[in-house]
Design goal:
- The protein contains 18 helices and 12 strands.
- Strand 6 (about 280) and strand 7 (about 285) form a beta hairpin.
- The longest helix has 20 residues, at about 150-170.
- The protein has a single domain, classed as Cytochrome p450.
- The radius of gyration is 21 Å and the shape is globular.
- It has a 5-stranded mixed β-sheet with strand order 1-2-8-5-3. A 3-stranded antiparallel β-sheet has the order 4-12-9.
- By secondary structure, it is an alpha+beta fold.
- The structure holds protoporphyrin IX containing FE (HEM).
- Protoporphyrin IX containing FE binds near residues 75, 262, 267 and 334.
Length: about 400
């Protein structure tokens, strides 16, 4: 294994990782990082190579503890089994269907949330807009009957805690009762003829247990990722008055802003794979069983693919697409819905007749190793006549 001089620590990767990742990429785009106990892939080309080749780099490994808690699902399988688990869900989330099902509902949720913030003083856009928009959209797209965002967030928190605990003690017994709430919600919803989930259930070649695991992966995959995506977008746009004004005046540029924010700060910064056998990427030898962590954040700022890669630019039509939603067999099935949520949040904030004031404290930059987002993003939305000095 190569010893590199400036291998980043977890602390550096969790704070502002970009200068550290750029330095590492310049030295070797595939490098062993002891703090992660993994090879870290920072170049776009090797990142794409790893994510597209599930015969060499698999997710199917006991060290990936999510599969042990929710059960085998599309997230933890590869090959033919992965296709079987994913097929009916991927089909239900294709762009035209997502648009038909959600194009009114998502903006309605976003506008409702933003409207309730106007004139009430400082609010945190992460907890008051991004998180509830993500949770409500996920519940709506699956049509989960009698299920509240609070319940879903409670299930998610318990499962994340269990996955984390298993990470530090792989021998621990898994508490399968944590899936009880979602199992019941799936049962109630599938029983409703014509519900979106009943349709997916009919199309899916899965046992009840497998089906529930995949619903969990879709539901939980839509929470922290989308929350991070929306909060990061707000951080870029509201933290830069010129950009905000440009997007206010030209709604046609807003989808580009959504994707540029995803490129620069993808809500999920890394994805893990495990090497099936001895192999090589970018000229670096990888042993069988080694963990390979792909830094989507680093790949998205690779100067070989993106001009002036650290700059927020709305003019990148001639560059390759970013990798925030991954690529290859595990490419995110929720990308269309996610983009719809981000756009709806942006429209709801920019198109209100309000002045947006960024708080001096509490407008935090994105942080985090896996899910990167501002801890708080405090702003004040004032009815615009207030901003001109009162009624
Ligand atoms: C509506 C919201 C979302 C839903 C329903 C959703 C659902 C999913 C599902 C089910 C997978 C697993 C696919 C598979 O393994 O075959 C996945 C993968 C992924 N999603 Fe999403 N997702 C959502 C939002 C997001 C957002 C906002 C991001 C990032 C900004 C994101 C990033 C990813 C990535 C990077 C993967 C690949 C994981 C890997 O390759 O290991 N997702 N998503």
């Amino acid at each position: 294994m190569r010893n590199l001089a400036r291998v980043p620590t977890v602390e550096q990767l969790s704070g502002n990782p970009h200068p550290h990742l750029a330095r590492l990429r310049a030295e070797s785009s595939v490098a062993w990082v002891p703090a992660l106990d993994a090879w870290l892939v920072t170049g776009r080309a090797p990142a794409v190579e790893v994510m597209r080749d599930d015969r060499r780099f698999t997710v199917d490994d006991p060290r990936f503890s999510t599969g042990r808690v929710v059960g085998p699902s599309m997230l933890s399988l590869d090959g033919a089994d992965h296709k079987r688990h994913r097929a009916a869900f991927a089909s239900a989330f294709r762009p035209a269907l997502t648009r038909a099902q959600m194009s009114e509902r998502v903006p309605e949720i976003a506008v409702g949330l933003v409207t309730s913030m106007v004139g009430i003083g400082p609010v945190d856009l992460r907890t008051a807009l991004a998180a509830p928009l993500a949770a409500r959209s996920a519940i709506a797209v699956l049509g989960l009957v009698d299920t509240t965002p609070a319940e879903v967030l409670e299930w998610y928190a318990a499962i994340v805690a269990e996955v984390t605990a298993l990470g530090s003690d792989p021998g621990a017994t898994v508490d399968t009762s944590l899936m009880g709430g979602i199992k019941e919600a799936v049962r109630r919803t599938v029983a409703v003829a014509g519900s979106p989930l009943a349709g997916i259930r009919d199309d899916a070649d899965l046992t009840d247990h497998e089906f529930t695991a995949n619903v969990a992966v879709v539901l939980f995959g839509a929470l922290e990722t989308s929350e991070a995506m929306i909060t990061n977008l707000m951080w870029w746009v509201l933290g830069d008055a010129d950009l905000g004004d440009r997007l206010r005046a030209s709604p046609g540029l807003r989808d580009r802003a959504v994707d540029e924010s995803l490129r620069l700060e993808p809500g999920a910064a890394i994805v893990d794979r495990f090497s099936v056998g001895p192999t090589e990427i970018g000229g670096v030898g990888i042993a069988a069983g080694d963990k390979v962590t792909v830094s989507l954040s680093a790949a998205n700022r690779d100067p070989a693919a993106h001009r002036d890669p650290d700059r927020f630019s709305l003019d990148r039509d001639d560059e390759p697409p970013h990798l925030a939603f991954a690529t290859g067999p595990h490419v995110c099935i929720g990308a269309h819905l996610a983009r719809m949520e981000a756009r709806a949040a942006l429209d709801a904030v920019l198109d209100r007749p309000v002045a947006t004031c960024v708080a001096e404290a509490g407008f935090d930059p994105p942080t985090g190793l896996v899910f990167r987002k501002p801890a708080r993003l405090v702003v004040e939305l004032r009815a615009s006549r207030d901003s001109r000095g009162g009624p």
